[in-house]
Amino acid sequence: MQCVRLPSEAGSVPPSAVRPEFPPSRRCPTVSSKGGSSDVLSFLPWALLGGCGCARLQRSSRRGGICGVLRARQAEIFQVPTDGDEVSAPPGLSSKIAVAELEGKGCGVVATSAISRGEVVLQESPLLGLPASFESAADVETLLNATSLRQLDEDLNSALTSCSQANQDRFWELSDCHGEHKTAAGIALTNALQLGKGGGLLAMSARFNHSCKPNVQGGWDKSQGGGMAVWHALRDISAGEELCFSYVDPYETDAERQSTLQRLFKFQCRCPVCMLQGEAKMASNQNRQQLRDLKEALELSAVVADDTAEMARELVPQMVELLDVELEGSPALKSKVLHVGFLLAWEGGDADLAKSMAQEAWENAVVAYGPDSERAAQLKLCASGEVPDEDLEDILLELDSSEFSVPGPPGLLAEEDDDDD
To answer: For position 38, what pLDDT does the model report?
Structure first.
């Protein structure tokens, strides 16, 4: 897609100009749909797998490091589709967005006309699939060591030979922040997202840059064939505005966010939140620290509180109010906070409060993930008084995970699978 030059408002990683030669190809591997997981909270920058707080990933890391996984046969790592379909362009690309060249930050995605809150802005299938076995990454440092990177690069290059030339071109157009010269492994670590139980490269989704106050949210819809990424607008977006999501924990202070982004993506964020000065910056940091403290208090209350309903009644409204002030009332984060509130209120025997929080969580989930998403459907049942048959403590283990997870990850209530095999 042809880029147009626009002024930049946030820092990002400009794509490298170096592109290696690549052999002719056939078709593109995709993410496996076997054992797919929830559409909610499933996006994760692939380089951030290690060290994240997700209980499932922590359990996986104890079962073996990434080196063993990367030594697996290529056929076990990349699944080639049997239907012969080729991914050449996002099938659900809204006419209201376009890739644009942004001054000082490479390419990004901008709105070409006004986009409404909750509107679908992109639906996309992956160019390449990385299956669930990659979730055994023990930490970022292990994943980034030279031996692992060499093996990952070999396997990716082998898989790319099965892609069409057009899709190879789209792959090599993506940025690489992990070396002076562009490599397949560097592109994967810079751009891959967790999709259901596996991971993958999505050429258009990878163009979304980072902002500490995001305006789009991604989810994984496993009901569509082998699965599809679906992005919704979190608020009204004006024509000419850039579409961004957050690569980091939204409850970190600006210094913590900048440190994470520099360490993992090699850029300094210049979004409006990070460019605040003086008292405004101090207030923002205080808001985010308070959100983190409240999240931790909410987690603790599930374990030690005598009256979990009272804790939900006290803590959840404070978090919702702060989200309105600091993160433009993020419906993605609100849905998670209110879902936790529902669980605590129900556990504490306050059915009215529980249903009220579930109803509000559902309304926010519809905006962030869509009315047909798995998360929205689950919350709709909760609002009607149907409680999922899940152990509260198991669900609350998920509080430390999110769709874009890093050490000290964002969000509340992420997907968790009991797949300890």
So the answer is: 39
Sign of CA dihedral 316, 321, 326, 332: positive
Residue recorded with tokens 């599930």: 302
Identify which of 140, 264, 194, 120 has the alpha carbon closest to the alpha carbon of residue 415.
194
Give the residue with greater pLDDT, 334 vs 413.
Answer: 334
pTM, entire model: 0.73
405 within some domain: no
Q: What is the DSSP letter of 111?
A: E
Which tens digits make up the pLDDT trace of 221-243?
A: 877 666 788 999 999 999 999 99
Q: Is residue 59 part of a domain?
A: yes
Q: What is the rounded distance in angstroms from the CA atom of residue 165 to the CA atom of residue 206?
A: 19
Q: How many angstroms separate the CA atoms of 339 and 341, rounded?
A: 5
**Domain range for 337:** 278-400
What region, left, alpha or beta, does residue 190 occupy, with left being phi > 0 and alpha being psi -120 to 50 degrees?
alpha
Q: Does residue 217 sit in the same domain as residue 358? A: no
8 A C-beta contact, residue 50 and residue 141: yes
Q: For 325-348, how does the pLDDT look when each residue is reduced to its tens digit (9 = 90+)? A: 999 999 999 999 999 999 899 989
Alpha-carbon span 11 to 269, nearest angstrom: 4
Token duo for residue 146: 């030279």
